[in-house]
Design goal:
The complex is a heterotrimer of chains A (about 260), B (about 375) and C (about 290).
Chain A: H1 2-32, H2 48-55, H3 59-88, H4 93-103, H5 105-108, H6 111-124, H7 131-156, H8 160-167, H9 172-200, H10 203-209, H11 217-227, H12 232-263
Helix pairs in contact in A: 1-12, 2-12, 3-7, 3-9, 3-11, 6-10, 7-9, 7-10, 8-9
Chain B: H1 3-27, H2 43-46, E1 63-69, H3 78-88, E2 90-96, H4 100-111, E3 117-118, H5 125-130, E4 134-135, H6 150-153, E5 167-179, H7 192-195, E6 203-206, H8 209-219, H9 230-243, E7 244-248, H10 251-259, E8 265-269, H11 270-278, E9 284-286, E10 292-302, H12 308-319, H13 321-328, E11 335-336, H14 339-344, H15 347-352, E12 363-365, H16 371-386
Parallel strand pairs in B: 1-2, 6-7, 6-8, 10-12
Antiparallel strand pairs in B: 3-10, 4-10, 5-8, 5-9, 5-10, 5-11
Helix pairs in contact in B: 8-9, 8-16, 9-16, 10-11
Chain C: H1 2-6, H2 8-12, H3 14-35, H4 54-61, H5 64-97, H6 100-110, H7 118-129, H8 134-142, H9 155-179, H10 183-191, H11 196-224, H12 228-233, H13 241-252, H14 255-290
Classes of the chains: A mainly alpha (about 260), B alpha/beta (about 375), C mainly alpha (about 290).
């Protein structure tokens, strides 16, 4: 009985925290339909910001660029991170700790410092602000997350299955793909997801490293805000948030029905 | 169990990456994956804006003029680049910066030889000139040359020792005192209002060391405002900071708290006052007795500009009557430098530009400073804000 | 054969990341140290001007740096504490209380805010916090405060905005750890008569420590180094160390001073992180000793 009350309290708490997380999104959606350019009241319903978003300005293009770029960086980070995590497995615990600290440097170094010092190097070797620089910089910042989350899967899984598979005569490659990799996939994927969202929002890194004239979404919005906030940004944010929430719900549904099928 | 969900996710990510790959190679030329210097600095100028705004260059024989400017600032409007493109059968590509410092680094890091024209202001004109980033303008081909405001056109920091012109003025404006007349019902005529204890917690100040020090200089009555007594300035700014609610850095930074009446008075750009007016907010924008601070923007031709001929035509077009009229009567109006255009403005149009009933009598230009002074002034400003 | 895959070839797998991070974090870091001794800026031809310790002298001769650093750390720690307090029950709720089929969805929903722009979310937060905004109207309705006042443009506003921004990281990290704790372990502890608090201290907390630590790291470091948020909502007394560093690189291009500031900032942060880690190890040992 007491447990039930406790659990209910936990659920209410969780609900409140999620409400806190989504309140600003609700505000953005609300404002995106407000005719007043400055978001001021009285409220007058309009869809013209959505029309503007899809017909006129560069926001959609910037969002597309950011999306593609973040996917590419997250994918690279995913591969590099997984390889690294695999490589760290055979190390002794103390060396593993040392190596983990080494690759976590980009997490510890504030992004501002990281971005400016990478820019210094890029200038030094003559590349300057460039796609390749922005790509490398962003990948460096997000790869540690993939490693951390993948390593987390290792430590709670033991080697018995792999050893069993080997004893039964499976070749190393087969062991890797049939036994090791599936166990890692959750860690790799959550790492990649984390990497993606961090890259998607890494204004600081992109602000310093993006080639001139190339505007990712964070940069584009920063530029727009400097010259005057326009509500079509709200419209874009609303569209993206709803799309993301939609994907979350859809995947959940797919996963659930898939599981039901498998259980049958 | 969870496998299916996870594999679906993995497949989605993979599909996305492939799509992104296509997008990269198709959209912006240098894909992020391609290595080496080929896709790096050298492309910076050429790829200007291709990611977002510019139509693909294609292989038309048209010339392409690369313009560096702020976003949404006249030159990329319908009456700007579009008209110019039709008139001279060329393409105009914009490259946006968000600060003038960024504009300078842009030139230094691969922009030379790619960018044709830039827009420094009265404060940065000397900086780009001294660093050899600009070149002389052939003024005989600027048709409105004699109509341009002489004080702005013959600005010493935009000319070399021999009197050759390195830039043409484009527009100018003031950073002066604005307030909400519904709350401050007595007319305000002095910068002293910002220091008034009665206004504590209602003041918004532009977060930029130079204008802040100039305002403090006017308030303390410095003899030479450009070489003030720094101890007095510090004292005045500390008092000002204690009255200040927020330091603003952009249009929106000012508009939002003003509309919510979190701030009711402050130094602001004339453009902010105009936006407030068009949004139906009560605002009074005044030129205090001590004087107002002013700036001007200049078009300059970059050294090694790939299209010098076209660049000169751009300067000619930008200062010409047709463009200046459209620019001055736009929704976001800007004061013209072409005196013929200025003379034709109606009182209502002048009102929007805050030139009616009277234009500012005493203005102090934001001038270039030497690097050492910049460091010193910035340090003062940072230190005052740090308390 | 199997043996070799796990050792020699295993080390080969580290080569790419070793090279990658050597170039992209170790070299930048050492360059930062070198630059911090620069006398001003690099010459335009890329050569070095003279070296000097003046940047450090300048930094420590005034109280500005210490003041800003202290304020930033205080804000960073407050934000981290609030995030832990908010996220722990939430992560527990997602991992253990809600139905299993909804877990993935809740995790995904927690990161939905990241798919919009963070800058826009800050603006939305400002709409909520501003005078006569959502929060103040609610407070006014409850009779707790005057709705025309507001907490915008103050340090608490910075804390609220930063908590909002970094809370999802903390939830994700804690969830990943809590989810791995076997249910039977908790049940066994409870069955053996341990109270809820005891179970938490002896079992749940130690097992979730890795997630908690990475969560702290992910929140504390960026929150302490932030400069956009204090500029937007911090008001006249809200300047943080990030703003000072940023102005050196962006407004005056004083690489030497900027690098020196960055480096000392980094050292301070690392010290704090080290202390937190040491504390957690000690706490874990103490618990182990008790049990």
């Amino acid at each position: 009985m007491k447990d039930k009350a406790f659990n209910r309290a936990i659920l209410i708490w969780t609900g409140l925290v999620y409400a806190f997380l989504f309140l600003p999104i609700a505000v953005i959606v609300f404002m995106s339909f407000n005719a007043n350019k400055y978001g001021a009241l009285p409220y007058a319903f309009t869809t013209r910001w959505y029309v503007k978003l899809f017909t006129e300005d560069g926001l959609l293009a910037a969002a597309g660029l950011s999306f593609g770029f973040s996917l590419a960086a997250a994918f690279t980070a995913m591969i590099l991170g997984t390889v690294t995590a695999l490589g760290m497995r055979p190390l002794t615990p103390s060396w593993r700790g040392r190596y983990r600290r080494f690759i976590s440097l980009p997490v510890v170094i504030p992004w501002l410092v990281q971005a400016t010092s990478i820019l210094m190097i890029l200038n030094f070797i003559g590349w300057g602000r460039s796609y390749i620089g922005m790509f490398l910089g962003n990948t460096a910042v997000i790869t540690p997350y993939v490693v951390m989350l993948t390593l987390g899967r290792f430590s709670d899984a033991d080697d018995n299955t792999e050893n069993a598979a080997r004893t039964l005569g499976a070749r190393p490659v087969r062991v890797f793909f049939d036994v090791t990799l599936p166990k890692l996939v959750p860690g790799i994927l959550s790492g990649a997801l984390m990497a993606f969202i961090m890259c998607f929002n890494s204004f600081c890194i992109q602000y310093y490293l993006a080639p001139f004239g190339v505007r990712t979404l964070p940069i584009e919005i920063f530029t727009l805000v400097r010259s005057g906030y326009t509500p079509d940004m709200n419209a874009l944010a609303a569209v993206m948030a709803l799309a993301a929430a939609g994907v979350a719900l859809l995947l959940n549904k797919m996963g659930y029905s898939g599981k039901k099928l498998m259980n049958m | 169990m969870k496998k299916r969900l996870l594999y679906t996710l993995l497949a989605l990510v993979l599909a996305g990456v492939f799509l992104a790959g296509c997008d990269d190679s198709g959209g912006s030329g240098g894909s992020s994956g391609s290595s080496g210097a080929a896709s790096s600095a050298a492309d910076a100028g050429g790829e200007a804006g291709s990611a977002a705004t510019a139509p693909p260059a294609g292989d038309s024989p048209q010339q392409t003029l690369v313009v560096a400017n702020w976003k949404g600032y006249g030159s990329d409007s319908d009456y700007g680049a579009k008209v110019f493109e039709e008139k001279y059968d060329c393409k105009v590509v914009h490259q946006y910066f968000t600060s003038l410092e960024e504009m300078v680094t842009m030139l230094k890091q691969g922009g030379l030889g790619k960018i044709d024209v830039i827009l420094p202001n009265s404060q940065y004109m000397k900086v780009v000139m001294d660093q050899g980033l600009t070149q002389k303008v052939d003024v005989s081909r600027i048709s409105s040359f004699n109509d341009l405001r002489p004080d702005l056109r013959d600005y010493a920091d935009a000319m070399d020792a021999e009197g050759a012109y390195y830039a043409m003025p484009w527009t100018w404006g003031t950073t002066s005192l604005g307030y909400n007349p519904k709350i401050h019902t007595e007319p305000i005529t002095s910068w002293k209002a910002l220091w008034d204890q009665a206004n504590k917690g209602k003041v918004g100040i532009f977060d930029e060391y130079y204008s802040a020090i100039l305002v403090a200089g006017l308030y303390t009555g410095q003899e030479d405002i450009y070489n003030p007594d720094l101890a007095e300035i510090k004292e005045a700014l500390t008092a000002l900071k204690n009255n200040t609610r927020t330091f603003w850095a952009s249009y929106d930074d000012f508009l939002k708290p003003y509309m919510a009446q979190e701030i009711t008075i402050g130094n602001m750009w004339a453009g902010i006052a105009s936006q407030l007016l068009s949004a139906g907010e009560p605002v009074a924008y005044v030129y205090p007795d001590e004087g107002a601070i002013a700036w001007a923007d200049y078009w300059a031709i970059v050294k090694d500009a790939p299209n010098y001929e076209l660049a000169v035509k751009w300067l000619d077009f930008m200062t010409g009557e047709e463009f200046q009229t459209a620019f001055a009567t736009d929704e976001n109006a800007h004061s013209p430098v072409n005196e013929k255009v200025a003379a034709q403005l109606t009182d209502d149009q002048k009102k929007i530009l805050w030139l009616y009933p009277e234009a500012p009598a005493k203005i102090f230009m934001q001038k270039a400073e030497d690097p050492k002074q910049r460091g010193e002034w910035l340090e003062i400003w940072n230190e005052i804000k740090s308390y | 054969m199997n043996f070799s895959l796990r050792t020699k070839k295993g080390h080969c797998l580290l080569l790419p990341s070793a090279a990658f991070f050597f170039c992209l974090s170790l070299i930048p870091l050492s360059m930062l140290v070198v630059f911090s001794f620069l006398d001003g800026n690099l010459n335009s031809d890329g050569s070095f001007p003279g070296f000097t310790a003046a940047n450090y002298v300048r930094m420590f001769s005034k109280t500005m740096f210490a003041r800003l650093m202290g304020r930033s750390l205080l804000i960073g720690l407050t934000v981290t504490l609030i995030c832990v307090a908010l996220a722990y029950p939430t992560a527990w709720g997602i991992a253990k209380v809600v139905r299993e089929k909804n877990r993935n969805m809740l995790v995904m929903l927690a990161i939905v805010p990241f798919f919009t722009s963070q800058l826009l979310l800050i603006y939305a937060m400002m709409v909520i916090l501003q005078s006569r905004g959502f929060l103040m109207s609610l407070m006014g309705w409850l009779g707790a405060a005057d709705p025309s006042g507001s907490i915008l443009y103050s340090l608490p506003a910075v804390v609220v905005v930063l908590v909002y921004e970094y809370l999802p990281y903390m939830i994700l990290c804690l969830y990943a750890s809590l989810e791995g704790i076997p249910d039977d372990l908790v049940q066994a502890s409870r069955a053996m008569g341990a109270g809820r608090l005891e179970t938490f201290v002896n079992i749940i907390l130690p097992l979730s420590m890795p997630g908690l630590l990475s969560g702290i790291m992910l929140v504390l470091i960026p929150a302490t180094g932030s400069f956009v948020e204090p500029g937007l909502v911090g008001g006249s007394g809200g300047m943080m160390i990030g703003s000072l560093i940023n102005s050196q690189f962006n407004t005056v291009l004083d690489m030497g001073y900027g690098s020196a500031l960055s480096f000392v900032f980094l050292v301070c942060l690392s010290l704090i992180m080290f202390m937190i880690r040491a504390l957690s190890v000690k706490a874990n040992r103490a618990i182990g000793g008790m049990a």
